[in-house]
Amino acid sequence: MTVLKIDVRRFPTRSELDTALADRLERAIRATATGSGGGPPVIMLSGGHTPLPAYREVARRRPPHGDELTIIFSDDRYVPADADASNYHSTRPLIDALGLPESQVLRVRTELPLEDAARDYESCLRTLLDAGAGIGLALLGIGPDGHTASLFRPEHLQQSRGRLAIAVQRPDGMQGISVTPDFLASAAEPLFVVAGAGKHDAIAAFIRQDPGSIALRAVAGCPRVELWIERDSELAPPAGK
């Protein structure tokens, strides 16, 4: 595996991490107002609890943005779009604050059968890339088991080859749809934001570029990535735990 350039930034407190992420996301949104002359600017949001405070803060700020700004998602659970477990639903305060039309918020259409939903999302992503879209800031997380997006197992990576989005069976018994390494390779600014307990081993494996790290393998096609960490997430669990 090619050595990946990883820029690691550590934050002493969760509050400082949340503020930095809100600032970074706001800058990315504001930057779309200048226009690049190419395809539509795209920002990818991740799910989970970690980015939610930043999403709420940016919604409060209501930054200006370009008319063509498009929001996409790293993944989503196969649940109704208004369910609490839906990543799309959890980001609605931000999306509503930005006032984007539905055509510029590319959610996973979970009202479709699972495989159809994956194919539909893949088609939307491919249309973006074919239009020369600039995939800018792409937010991701890392779970305690080392997964990112809804890529949990080596077989998910194998299933992803040649695809931009796939349907997966999650370890928690749920189903989901995830972007793939092929799609993530098109992102200009992949940013992993990691907070919370129990992630020491997953973070360590990512930083030392352990080939068994699913998160690392998911971005192997990127020239560089950023990793933002709340320091407590790096603390090893007590012995015997």
CATH architecture: 3-Layer(aba) Sandwich
Mean pLDDT: 94
* Uncertain residue segments: none
The helix content, as a percent range, equals 25-40%
Order of helices and strands: EHEHEEHHEHEHEEHEHHE
Read across the widest sheet, the strand sequence of neighbours is 1-10-9-6-2-3-5
Number of helices: 9
Count of individual domains: 1
Task: Sum up the structure in keywords.
single chain, 241 residues, alpha/beta, Rossmann fold, 7-stranded parallel β-sheet, 3-stranded antiparallel β-sheet, 9 helices, 10 strands, globular
Short description:
The protein has 241 residues and is of the alpha/beta class. It has helices at residues 14-31, 52-61, 87-90, 92-98, 114-130, 154-160, 181-184, 200-207, 214-218, and strands at 5-11, 41-45, 70-73, 75-77, 105-106, 134-140, 165-169, 175-179, 189-194, 224-230.
Task: Please write out the topology.
Blueprint: E1 5-11, H1 14-31, E2 41-45, H2 52-61, E3 70-73, E4 75-77, H3 87-90, H4 92-98, E5 105-106, H5 114-130, E6 134-140, H6 154-160, E7 165-169, E8 175-179, H7 181-184, E9 189-194, H8 200-207, H9 214-218, E10 224-230
Parallel strand pairs: 1-10, 2-3, 2-6, 3-5, 6-9, 9-10
Antiparallel strand pairs: 4-8, 7-8
Helix pairs in contact: 1-2, 2-4
Structure description:
- This protein has helices at 14-31, 52-61, 87-90, 92-98, 114-130, 154-160, 181-184, 200-207, 214-218, and strands at residues 5-11, 41-45, 70-73, 75-77, 105-106, 134-140, 165-169, 175-179, 189-194, 224-230.
- Strands 1-10-9-6-2-3-5 form a seven-stranded parallel beta sheet. A three-stranded antiparallel beta sheet has the order 4-8-7, with helices on both faces.
- α1 (14-31) packs across α2 and α2 runs parallel beside α4.
- It is globular.
- With 241 residues, it is α/β, with parallel strands linked by helices.
- It has a single domain, classed as 3-Layer(aba) Sandwich (Rossmann fold), CATH 3.40.50.
- The longest helix is centred in the N-terminal third of the chain and has 18 residues, at 14-31.
- 33% of the residues lie in helices and 21% in strands.
